Amino acid sequence: MEFYKYQGAGNDFILIDNRAGNVSLTGEQIALMCNRNFGIGADGLMLLENTVGFDFKMVYFNSDGRESTMCGNGGRCIAAFAKKMGIIHNIADFQAIDGGHIAKIDDDGLVSLQMKDVDTMLIHEGYTMLNTGSPHFVKWVSDLVQTDVYGDGHEIRNRKEFQPDGINVNFVESYNGKLLVRTYERGVENETMSCGTGVTAAAIAASCTSVGEFETEVETPGGILKVAFTKDGPMSAKQITLTGPAEFVFQGQYIAR
């Protein structure tokens, strides 16, 4: 089985061309492939498949082997992968679990991904909750470097009110006009170098109840991402784009066991 490894701001993925429909993997096999000690190593695995009315379909699995909700950096990486495979040129119209997405690739290789609209935000003292294709808990902190992302993220992700599926947890600090974000991702059950839907959630949450057009630079441990969006109302956002790098790392052959 041929696989390709991609990363977007350090968020890394195994990609497999399954247009022929001959790849069938169990959750245990996916988890093993994503394991950083005994497998290829990745935050998730994606199958690129054929589907009617779109250039392709994105099927995404977390590193625990379970199919998951939308992955923003994954969406940007699979668009770059589709270009490498000759499926698209610079624009992809693809289907994901949360519906259709448009991705555009510029001459420098940056990929801008159209995200789903956000219908509502739940604003609380010190944190905000919203869904950007995946559910996110955005917690404001004053010193991101000293924040216990694993410990605090694990505790919030496993709270009773978020079960059975859990929630992704983003710790956010505002610094010199940009946002600093670190994310604990469910399904990975650890901090990742970045999270596309997470930085999107953080940028929208930072707008609070303001309306207008916004463009926010977000720094993660894996690199810089940009989020642009429009708000006609205080609790919703539309025309959301996530922009950043999506880079080929290596390819190889994998024998499933």
Question: Can you give a write-up of this model?
Answer:
By secondary structure, the protein is of the alpha+beta class. It folds into 2 domains: 2-102 and 246-253, Diaminopimelate Epimerase, Chain A, domain 1 (Roll); 121-245, Diaminopimelate Epimerase, Chain A, domain 1 (Roll). It has 4 helices and 17 strands. The chain has a 17-stranded mixed sheet that branches. A hairpin with a 6-residue loop joins strand 3 (44-49) and strand 4 (56-62).
Which helices and strands appear, and what pairs or packs with what?
Elements: E1 2-8, E2 11-17, H1 27-34, E3 44-49, E4 56-62, H2 72-84, E5 91-96, E6 99-105, E7 110-114, E8 121-124, E9 127-131, E10 135-140, H3 149-157, E11 168-175, E12 178-185, E13 190-192, H4 196-206, E14 212-220, E15 223-231, E16 238-245, E17 247-253
Parallel strand pairs: 2-3, 4-5, 10-11, 12-14
Antiparallel strand pairs: 1-2, 1-17, 3-4, 5-6, 6-7, 7-16, 8-9, 9-10, 11-12, 12-13, 14-15, 15-16
